[in-house]
Amino acid sequence: MASRASSKLLEVGRVAKVHGIRGEVIVSLFTSRLERVAAGSILYPVGHGLRTSRGTSASRGRAATASRSGDGTLHDAMHVGNSDSDLPDSLVVKRSRFTGYNGCAGMWIVAFDGVDSRNYAEHLVGAGLTAPSVEDPGSLWVDDLAGCTVYDKVGKVAGKVAAMLVYPGGDLLELEDGKMVPLAFVTSHEPGRVVVDVPEGLL
Prior knowledge:
- By secondary structure, the protein is mainly beta.
- Helix content is about 5%, strand content about 40%.
- The strands form four sheets. Strands 1-2-8-7-3-9 form a six-stranded antiparallel beta barrel. Strands 14-13-12-11-16-15 form a six-stranded mixed β-sheet.
- The longest helix is centred in the middle third of the chain and has 5 residues, at about 120.
């Protein structure tokens, strides 16, 4: 198997459970970059996957998608899974197939090279799956949004970004007061500042 990459790794999914007796697992995928589970893709397991208390927040480093795609926690992360010492350095995807959504995350049945038994697969359950970041100049990344002050189109402060929630129908910015803003309404961004153009009454 390949060695662990030295570049920055982003959490893109989590091993949710074992599927069948031949070593396949169910992966909860946090990213819209489906090449992460394509045959030949290399993922690096870590012992503490991330869960969120509601829905699925984007994995830290995920690209926020308003007609864009990328990877991807901003809030309510709870450590789960095995210690790193129980896990292989890397996993190479042999094959995968999409099975649907569980809440916000896409669920995939994945077979990894060398993981050929249920007993071996059980050691992966709960592990986070990470991958190197990708160059995507047109994307707005979750790390860029965390903690930003949100302004409406006339310059009024609407709040601060507490989380980004990932949904099949479109990602949402969650503000500290609990209000939700569809990412599609973001019109501009600079360090520490996000401007949105939302329908009257949304904020």
